[in-house]
Input
Amino acid sequence: MMKRYRMATYLSGAAAARTGDEMSGPALLLAGLAATGSAGTGSALLSGITLSAAVGGPVFGAMLDRTARPGRLLAGAVAAYAAALLAVLLGLGRVPLPLVVATAVLGGLLGPALAGGWTSQLPRVVAPEALPRANALDALTYNVAGLAGPALAGLVALLAGPAAGVVASLVLILFALPAAWTLPGRPAATPGGPASSVLADLVSGFTAISSTRPLARATLTSVVSYVGVGTLVACTPLLGEEAWGSSHAGTFLLTTLAAASLTANALLARRPDLLRPDATVLASTLVLAAALLLAATAAPVPLAAAMVVAGAGAGPQLTALFAVRHREAPERLRGQIFTTGASLKITGYAVGAGLGGPLAAWSLPGALFVAAGCELLAAIGYLAFTAPSRPAGGAAARTAADTRP
Output
């Protein structure tokens, strides 16, 4: 019963934190526009809170790996992220914009805590044999957040005003505090030599990602793939305009993509034995490439179908990526590997989103062809890594031993 309760608590906390995070971006866009009358304000806030994750993720992960009670540190990060959102909201229109953006940048340093920070703790919540199903359920919370967050931001802003959207997002994030605080602690360390420095741990974490071939290729593939996904998201308003005569129809496309991802991961949660993590990471990029090429037609029916296909690729890719990380990450570097991976993916997404706007203004089909090219490049990067043969009792066995209660 305790295991089941802990998993339910974990999922509720992760879903709340991630939904609030997904809600905060659109809410900041609307609040910035309402407070200053400039769309550039909202864009600057969103960029600030997104791009700084690339720096914050590895450092937070290293700290997470060094503490005996990672849940307490995670709870502190959740609270600080919510406080940063509140400070941004209170500062809009009252203090100089650069200071408000700087506050968003500081908050964004903790963004990976709401993603990889949670996932890195999953092996302490469930037994090793239950990890595949738990991993699929964890990925499901990302899909729920991606589906519900933007919709909630728009709905709350419509009913109560743009500022209320930011408040609602930080309240959702704070709802995750008890679940984070009560996460299981780390087993007592064996007495030994002096502890390594944070810098040494950072070097060890990046070395582990780059030198473990399955981990390196999965990380590289997902980051390059997310450049293509970010480009697609930036194109959705123009795709909605082209297909249905309204840029607001772009939200329908994103909802369709998120719903398809949710459905695919729900199937994997019921049948985790269907997942072949390494093969799925590769296959998903090819599925996404096909979806992007189909979307380039900008015709209503093929476009809707393309979003379904894209979701069917993106959802399992996330589940497979988590499975590879859980299997390959050394226990002492698990938190850093997950938060660093989250930071790199966020950065890839931000690069794609930044490129998508100018590319779409030049040529909408051309932008989608570039996005499809990113997916093919991700697949080529995957194939460039030749996994060595693994002796019995390799990383999978080590991980199982590391996470055994």
Notes: The CA atoms of residues 1 and 177 lie 22 Å apart. The two ends are 16 Å apart (CA to CA). The first helix runs from residue 2 to 36. The mean pLDDT is 82.
